[in-house]
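Lab notebook: predicted structure, single chain.

Context: the supervisor wants predicted structures on file for every construct in the current expression panel, including those that have not yet been purified. This is the next one on the list. No modifications to the sequence; it matches the entry in the shared construct table.
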Amino acid sequence: MAKLVKLHRSRQHRMIAGVMGGIAEYLGWSPMLTRILFVIISTASVAVPGILVYIILWLVMPNATAASYR
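Prediction complete. Output recorded below exactly as produced.
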């Protein structure tokens, strides 16, 4: 049976708030690759600044609990 992974802010791959680490865990990607892609997409986007998206995700995404990693 496949492990169900919920979207959360990471405890293990945290640089600022764990947002990109949580997204990387959810997608099964490298946290560093996720951060690099976010920076590239944020700088290329004129309509919505990446820092605003990051802050919204920080507020909306729940923090990981010990049960998140079982």
